[in-house]
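the two lines:
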Amino acid sequence: MAEVIASVAAKAPSAPKQREPLLEIKAAPAELQREPMVANQRSLGWISDAIAGVAEGKTPRWWWIAFVPSVTLMLTCFTMILYLMSVGVGVWGPGHPVMWGWAIINFVWWIGIGHAGTLISAILFLLRQRWRTSINRAAEAMTIFAVMCAGIFPLIHIGRIWLGWWLFPIPNSNGIWPQFRSPLMWDVFAVSTYFTVSLLFWFMGLIPDLAVMRDRATTKIRKFAYGLFSLGWTGSNRHWSNYEKAYLILAGLSTPLVLSVHSIVSLDFSVSQLPGWHTTIFPPYFVAGAVFSGFGMVLTLLVPLRRLLKLEDIITVRHVELMCKVTLATGSIVGYAYAMEFFIAWYSGNPYERYAFINRAVGPYAWGYWIMIGCNVITPQLFWFKKIRTNMMLVFILSIFVNIGMWFERFVIVVISLHRDFLPSNWGYFRPTWVDILTYLGTFGLFFTFFLLFLRFVPIIAIAEVKGVTPQADPHHPLGGAKEGGHH
Amino acid sequence: MATTSQKYGILAEFETPAAAMHAAETVRDRGFRKWDVFTPFPVHGMDKAMGIKNSKVGWFSFLGGVTGYTSGMVMIWWMNAVDYPIIIGGKPMFSPFGAFPPCYELTILLGAFGALFGMLFMNRLPRLHHPLLKHRRFALATHDRFFLVIETADPKYSENETRKLLESTGSKRIELVEE
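prediction for all of em together
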């Protein structure tokens, strides 16, 4: 200790060895104190054990009970795609006038779900919302798997799937190039960039935690595999310094990315001239809806998991409450956008636009519209009440309503707008086929198969980041070893 | 000393981030160069305590972003206005506005690659072998302990003096690490 004091004294020669505190700081009153990020004052080691323990030891029975049906559903999805490829897009419901059916609905729905992961990992990081650390890893994994499910649909809906590579600017023997004045082309770049950057961000966050798994590994295979993927991470502070900078930059890049992805998806619609699609409100309204649906899915996944995996001290009730508040905020924006669309349909004086919206509310698909309103406008408003936000069962049920509502929002946009356009002779009624339905259900199998594998092999919460927000990680806190009255 | 050539360095263990930080300040002030602190999470203020300058990763990302944007613009202009011009709805063959969304995405894509690979390059990762990773006690660096390591390659290193210095920082467990 003498050396430390000597070094302090060297910098400030007049400082006495024991300084009197200049100002007595009283603890804030109880109602102003924030709840800790990790409940029950858990130690740093406990955090490693609790999180890494999920991916260690014997596979629990519930995991198999969930995994087998997931794989079955995933195989159903692949079978349906094979059937589609061998017979043709006629096995699906779309046809004149509804040329875009479930494929586009599902694409927009899944990609919207992904947005919560990036919002949590990037935007909440830039806003210094430290509670994100308990949920960002699982939410980012959800993003990646959701974008995978989303990516399937634009690829298979093109009809001749084997020509899907024409979407990318790759030289081909026809000597032609993609046409970059089309928003569909922008979408290719937005979605593939989104997937790649999400994967990079997720993997970079994983490097220190895979090193934790490596250092805990008991078998040679685990040690080798985790050792390989952790890239030789040692926890060196010189490495952390570059790592934190890279993390900040990735967060800074992902923020404009996530805002652009759903904006560009919305341009697929709004750049066209169809009443109901051709509106300038689409980009912000799509982004808000995406975040809303994504938080719905994060809640659907994490509320049962925190209980099942005994992680209630890390994903606390406060975390769930905060997620409910984000859902409430974005849900309210979505509700406002619905109202504004209606107002503009009337205010614009455009008879086609006006008819498109009246047809939504009272036309043959009114049931779809009112499911959307019920789930997306009314459900989130219940989150104003703390009693509801802290009731895990209710939160879980309401989060499923959010997921359903957001699927119907895309149904309303795609199908209701298309089925009646300018000329009554051009009207029709769309019904999905069993192939449509099974392909969509099958993507749940794909999603949950990957998510369950993720639970089993990868730390599902960012271990290093959660440790970093505990009081004992702060060198200026008494629990972090700071001496009272010391210069740290 | 003949034995130092087989030793990688001397390792001191600490139980709290504050203790490791104070030790780092001492080692920094003594003018050591080849040394490092190993922590389970990034400790706030440790960069300053070690005298590490601002990371240069940003430059890699910046270069990636600039490359992405310019190559996107050039690519789209060449493809749609030079190599395969085709009239679409009376729009100009090339407009920076229509080309902007893909270029925006390419900026982000290559900027992100720059950040990740820049970080790995600056850290000289991936690295499949490290003397510290063979040390049994060092596995706790990813768990709940904090380590300070001074390499034998440091010009100021001396087996007895350095050990005494580390003892004076309050570490209760000091060990030599084999190469």
